[in-house]
Amino acid sequence: MTSAQPPHLAAALRHRGYLLSWWPWRALAYVLTTVPIAGVLSVGLLVVGAPLLAAVNAVRQHDRPVSLPLALFLAVGTLIVVALAPLVSAAVAALERWRLGVVDGRPVPARPWSGLAARYTSADAWREAAYAALLGSVVPLAYWVYLLLVLVDLMLVASPWLAGDADQVIVVWSTVDTPAEAAPYAIVGVLLLPVLWYGLGVVAAAQAAMARRLLGSAGDTAALREVTRSRARLVDSYEAERRRIERDLHDAAQPRLTSLTLQLGLARLDVPEDSPAARPLAVAHEQAKGLMVLLRQIVHGIRPQSLTDLGLAGAVRELAGEATIPVTVHADLDRPLPETVETTAWYAVSEALNNVTRHAAATRAEVRLARAGDRLVVEVSDDGRGGADPARGTGLTGLADRVGAAGGRLLLASPPGGPTLVRVELPCR
């Protein structure tokens, strides 16, 4: 069963089939295209950095002061680098935002040129300069360490062929004379190849995360954070208002309607059947009973009573028992869940099972509830005909909106011919 395409490399690294996908090759392309950019920037930093390190080393070893020409060179060079950094980083940042699309499909808004003075006064410009400095210093160092690990592994793999020469071959910390002695090292080297292939993705993902953090707008990040907080406040306010309405309906309207129904029932017993008032009274009694059933359904729709009485696992098992096909429930919930999460998860299972019953032509279904770190994972699968499409109805779309309002996400896998899997992930903060 296929899942949704990961939006970026960091998400793809968590998928089981990462090594067999196109993502490692995209990571390789991102790393290879970084090499010339980082190389040019590192040469520029070395022009000032190498003499500075040499001067510091001389002072530490010989306890001699720095000569005046060298001090002037370092001071002027540092000033030139600082003065050129906001200008050079503008071109580097524009290229990096475009290149980031190789491993991250999420767009990074470009910053329009706002004048020369703004390059030296805005925080965003100096964030770009910081990224250029890291690209010319930390990134090449990380690449050299990774390249060294690759060369060591290739030496392990090639050691049986190298050991066939007349000279002795040193493999890591041992000396081998024959291909048979080198064979265990070669096996270890072959087993490490997938690890290094995966490690390349980790290096590329770390660089991409650094680029997104420094090249993204600080203002946009703050605005997005405030939108997230505002949405959380709205959800909390909705839940508080929902509980108030539920309490008012349950404690005020429902008892009075029950009393009215009983009074009408008693009145029917006192009125003869041939009386002109008997039929209108019977109609009023039936309408009152229907209204009471409707009110119970409304209260149940706001927050199912089974959630309060049985908890999420018990309420889902009750849903499974009401389904028209066999439904198996697997629940692994070791800690209490927030009320909002429980309600959203219950509606997700209810809507998914309703879709299975109405559209899937399935013979059985399965529901899984589990905690994965700080998230609740809800999966509903069936053996039906598949082909579920949110565009053909409002059920899945409305469910996705409800899950999104709770800060979660909904994933759907439903190839033609089935099976179908609906996966809901909800944060349990």
Automatic annotation (TrEMBL):
Domain Histidine kinase/HSP90-like ATPase: from-to ranges: 347-427
Lineage: Bacteria, Bacillati, Actinomycetota, Actinomycetes, Micromonosporales
Signal peptide, first to last residue: none
Enzyme superclass (EC): transferase
Protein name per the record: histidine kinase
Alphabetic keyword roster: ATP-binding, Kinase, Membrane, Nucleotide-binding, Phosphoprotein, Transferase, Transmembrane, Transmembrane helix, Two-component regulatory system
One matching Pfam family: HATPase_c
Catalyses which reaction(s): ATP + protein L-histidine = ADP + protein N-phospho-L-histidine
Transmembrane segments: 27-50, 70-95, 141-162, 182-206
EC numbers: 2.7.13.3
CDD domains: HATPase_UhpB-NarQ-NarX-like
Putative sensor domain location: 71-215
Domain Signal transduction histidine kinase subgroup 3 dimerisation and phosphoacceptor: 241-307
